[in-house]
Amino acid sequence: MPETPSASPLRPALFLDRDGVLNEDRGYVSRWEDFHWIAGAREAVAAFNRAGWLVIVVTNQSGVGRGFYSEADMHVLHARMAEDLAKAGGHIDAFYHAPQHPDAPLDAYRHPDPPDRKPNPGMILRALGEWPIDKAASLLIGDKPSDLEAALRAGVRGVLFEGGNLAEFLKNEALLPIASPPA
Q1: Strand order in the sheet with 13-16
Q2: Which of 19, 93, 116, 143 is flagged as catalytic?
Q3: Cβ count within 10 A of residue 127
Q4: What is the pLDDT of residues 87-111, one digit of tens each?
Q5: Is the pLDDT of residue 132 over 80?
Q6: Are 163 and 144 in contact (CB under 8 A)?
Q7: Is 17 one of the annotated active-site residues of the chain?
Q8: What does pTM read for this prediction?
Q9: Domain regions of the chain by residue span
Q10: Domain 20-132+149-162 classified CATH 1.10.10.10?
């Protein structure tokens, strides 16, 4: 079960973009029926969980701001992701999302330069403030330059994932933890 933020010792965090890193990016994925895990994504999350890392999703969700689906729809999808991930022995500690967009037709989501929308670092900075994260030991995996820019601006190492099997990619890059945390 994911823990809640507390005054516990600092831990590294694995920040993950969602579409293109955890799931296939098929454009504005908002329903479980349209969701397909990236090969190795569940295994990678579980490996970081076992190693004692926090796992935090930071995802632009302009489909909400554009009126393609609601925040409630997105939360339902994230809950289904969490259920399915638990079957693989993994969990996500927190989901952060940025529904704002400069061109959003919905007033509530229109912002000229949304602070949370990557490449801005807002989601990462909020997580750093809300969780006991060792920033220097943390890592962001993204599939776009904007993900890496957000990581850089937040002071977190960013790595570009260009597709394939996520667990194999992280293993080949010597980034997949193999040891469990000390008892």
Answers
A1: 94-98, 54-60, 13-16, 139-142, 157-160
A2: 19
A3: 23
A4: 999 999 999 999 999 999 989 999 9
A5: yes
A6: no
A7: yes
A8: 0.93
A9: 20-132+149-162
A10: no
